[in-house]
Design goal:
Layout (H helix, E strand, L loop, with lengths): L5 E8 L5 H11 L5 E5 L6 H11 L14 E5 L5 E6 L6 H6 L2 H5 L4 E5 L13 E7 L6 E7 L1
Parallel strand pairs: 2-5, 2-6, 4-5
Antiparallel strand pairs: 1-7, 3-4, 6-7
Length: 148
Amino acid sequence: MYNTGVEKVQLKMSSLEDLPAAASVLLEEAKEMPVVLFEGPMGAGKTTLIKEVCRQLGVQENVSSPTFSLVNEYEAPEGNLIYHFDFYRINQEREALEIGALEYFDSGRMCLIEWPSLIPNLLPEHYLLVTLQPAADGEVRTMTINRV
């Protein structure tokens, strides 16, 4: 499904206290690659990580998963826009096209995309793939960042 590229970073997170450091590493990796895909099973922490990324970028408004609207727009300082997508509920890629997903992805602005596996033909050529995987005990999560 994905060209997994070269693994850049793998971090273990054992509690929410590890989240700021993980988001900071992710933001460092995303400096030159604004489209970031988030994969992982339900409850892996995709939205929680995105909330911390947005907080570190200076977003003041409430960050929540756009499960029904498909995209939320957040404003960071100096008018920088961040787009947060959640494609969990789409049935066809056409639904993403209808909201202008390709224009968002090509905007040069940060795009944070949950459930990108549901729109494989619409993904840009280059992106960061963040995979979150909880351990069997549910306590430790592994975050892997690949540059594609």
